[in-house]
Specification:
Elements (H helix, E strand, L loop, with lengths): L14 H6 L4 H7 L3 E5 L10 H17 L5 H20 L4 E9 L2 E9 L5 E5 L5 H18 L6 E7 L3 E8 L4 E5 L3 E2 L4 H13 L1
Parallel strand pairs: 1-7, 4-5
Antiparallel strand pairs: 2-3, 3-4, 5-6, 6-7, 6-8
Helix pairs in contact: 3-4, 4-6
């Protein structure tokens, strides 16, 4: 006997709707034709001039002192956007905010932050500061992005974040396999390493 479907045929699903589904990432992704695993990811890194990260760290720490992170907008404006704008400045590329894509009725919506530069880096802000469900949404967005972009890169990278916590994902486009990183990167404590990874993804 076949198990009832999670994703109903004929129904419309935006990316944010996947956040609300109370099922495991493995079960949801299996219905989209993708496998899922968790391990410590060896992420690319590029060394960044120390004074750039020191200045950004001062800005982030100031913002954390002055802003209560009580809403998604507060987290985006106080932490996430400043980090990604600095990464784009270092990598000399553009930051796309609320980037709309429409692959199918089951794969459509806005990507919070998308940096192209021929590599494909996707960052989403975890609603309700829930990284677990946020990761499911990130994984679905990476699958959609794979079908949306014209790129011969075999890997796509993404991160889900509350602003203070960052978790990475890697999507192998040939194998259709999503890997969730076991490590969590903390801001501001691990900001220099986080910047090196974000720039590394765009540079490798």
């Amino acid at each position: 006997m076949n198990r009832p479907r999670i994703i109903q045929p004929g129904q419309s699903y935006t990316f944010s709707k996947y956040f609300d589904l109370p099922f495991s990432p493995e079960d949801i992704l299996a219905e989209i034709g993708c496998t899922y695993g968790r391990e410590r990811l060896p992420l690319p890194k590029t060394e960044v001039v120390a004074n750039k990260t020191e200045q950004l760290q001062q800005v982030i720490e100031r913002n954390l002192r002055r802003v209560q992170l009580l809403s998604e907008d507060a987290r985006k404006q106080a932490i996430i956007a400043p980090i990604l704008l600095e990464v784009c400045e270092i990598a000399q590329t553009q930051l796309n905010i609320e980037y709309a894509i429409n692959v199918s009725d089951q794969l459509k919506g806005n990507l919070d932050y998308y940096i192209d530069k021929g590599k494909g880096l996707l960052v989403i802000e975890a609603k309700q500061a829930d990284l677990s469900r946020g990761f499911t949404q990130l994984a679905v967005e990476l699958i959609a992005l794979d079908q949306w972009i014209n790129s011969d890169k075999s890997l796509l990278y993404g991160a889900v974040t509350t602003g203070e916590d960052w978790r990475f994902a890697k999507y192998n486009r040939q194998e259709k396999h999503i890997t969730e990183d076991l490590k969590l990167y903390r801001v501001p404590e691990e900001l220099p390493e986080l910047i090196e990874i974000l720039v590394g993804i765009l540079s490798n």
